[in-house]
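Researcher: Re-running this chain for the archive, since the previous output was lost when a drive failed. Same request as before.
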Amino acid sequence: MLASLLLLLGIWLRDHVRVLDRLNFPPPVIGGLLAALAMLVLPKTGPATFALDTSLQKPLMIAFFTCIGFTASFKVLKIGGPAVVLLLGLAASVAILQAFLGSGVAIAFGLNPLLGPLIGTATLAGGPATGLAFAPQFEAAGVVGASTIATATAMSGIVIASLLGAPLVTWMIERKGLDPRQITEPSIQPAASEAPIVLSPIRSTLKTLALLGVAMALGGGVSNAIQATGITLPAYIGAMLVAAALRNLDDLTGLLGLPHKALETAGAVTLSLFLVLAMMGLNLALLGGLAVPLFVNLVAQTLLIVALVIGPIWWLLGRDYDSAVAAGGFTGFMLGTTANAMSVLNAITEKYGPAPRAFLTVPLVGAFFIDFTNALILTVTLNL
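Model: Regenerated structure tokens:
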């Protein structure tokens, strides 16, 4: 109940506070951080004390990443064309660089090298959801206060992405003399499996719940089998893999008739509630001693993205106006969230003109495929 009310409060505040809307702060994060701040000042002892029951946090997290698994369609990736595959490959490569750069900063300050993936790819390429999902594994591996560190890094990344993305693309367009008229319209048709499934709202909802339940139950067995080999991984990996298998089975056979829109809605709802619950329990007092290392890491990560975007990434994406816009979107979701990426795309195309290839590739990679790929990258780096 409290999480739902905080979520609604976060939505209201972002709608009415211009700076929150301009920086694309997620409403769940706004509401959850307010609760975390309140818990910081509320009494810890005495007749009136407060404790939060966040037992629903884990199943909501698994449900959200299961919904992400249902978007991992190889057919859609193939139909998206080489441009989508290229952008995903670049994003995955940079995510690995973010992890190692974060570890380098941690080692320089005499901190646990495991901090690197957490303050790199988990929270910048992954955003608040991935960072908080992996935080228990990093905590168990020795990173004290992993959830709080993940939140601070992710929120800082969102601010940087909001301030940096559009100005960086504008500078590239003006400096390189890019012409918005010299673009190639992509001749890509939507995947047949994305055609809307005609079901009543009740049947669609029930089918979605059944699919999530099956994928989560089977995924629990998959996760247990993987962990029995000694590999550390977050609880949702098994369910995500099962959901991806079901999605690709449906793409090939049409047997399941997946309700894509309902699954997308379920993912948005479970993500919002998971983030609020995760934020509510943060111990913000832990951040004091890590302020300098976190600041240095953010500066280094930002310089890395800027150097790559204005150089090899723009060059590999095609060296034209559309490529510059896509590179700006890349900046958005590799430092912040997909919302930051789309904000950059909208701001630039409103001023200079359409960039159809960027609008095709950036949402596919930033909203779906990078989350799936990033989970695998983090699992490997955490175990290494």
